[in-house]
Amino acid sequence: MKPQRFKAAFTLIELAVVIATITLLLVMILPALATTGTKSQRIICVNNLKDTYLAFKIWAGENSDQFPMAVSTALGGGKEYVYSYAEQFPFSYEPWAVFQVCSNQLVTPKVLYCPSDNNPNPAISVIGGPTTHIGTYAPSFGSGFDDGYISYLICGDATLNYPGAILFGDRNIGSQGTIANNPTPAAVMFPDTHEINSGFTAESTWAWSAHDQHLGAGNLALTDGSVAQVTVNGLRQAMIMSTNALPGFDAIGTYYNFP
Fold this sequence. Notes:
This protein is 29% helix and 14% strand. It has helices spanning 12-61, 95-101, 103-106, 232-245; strands spanning 152-155, 166-170, 173-175, 188-190, 195-196, 199-200, 206-208, 218-222, 227-230, 248-249, 255-256. Strand 5 and strand 6 form a beta hairpin.
């Protein structure tokens, strides 16, 4: 009769060591995976801004080298959605409508959504805009498309004549200590007056909001087609550069140039 063989088994101590080793490996690997995911989201965001710039550049090429913010709605642009007041025009601050003007060039509203912007945080209520960011991209540019689907602000003063000026940027922007804790929905930026929609502030207090899309930084697209991720200091410097470069409009929409 052959002797019976017994299969070797883990002791409790060996099992504990295995579990501890696996736990340690997970602790080491998960942050790296999270960082990889964050980096890929930033890359997608940068590519979105580049694609959006290209769409606006193509549109401008078909409209006397002017972005839709400088072309009247009567001529197929979106100027009155940026430079208008209730007593003057039947429009309000509606950046979504400016992006919609370029819908043929943009092809899909997906390029207006940053994958890091997935938290439907309450946002500052602005005239004509939603109070909640939806946290995904719109199914189409048709009915229902509005600022709540857009992750980016648009600069109303942007022009191809000033290649170092801001054109687009992440929406989570505001005044440090106040708006910074509650990001705007897609907004209109006016560097010449340091204004976002109807709120004025000095460039020294501009900041990325507490609900950061990119962990203390944000992406800016300039009118020369370049896109860069900048810190709060980089944001303020870009605002100053845009302020020094850009012409603008006064409070009733009259165009003027800096001396």
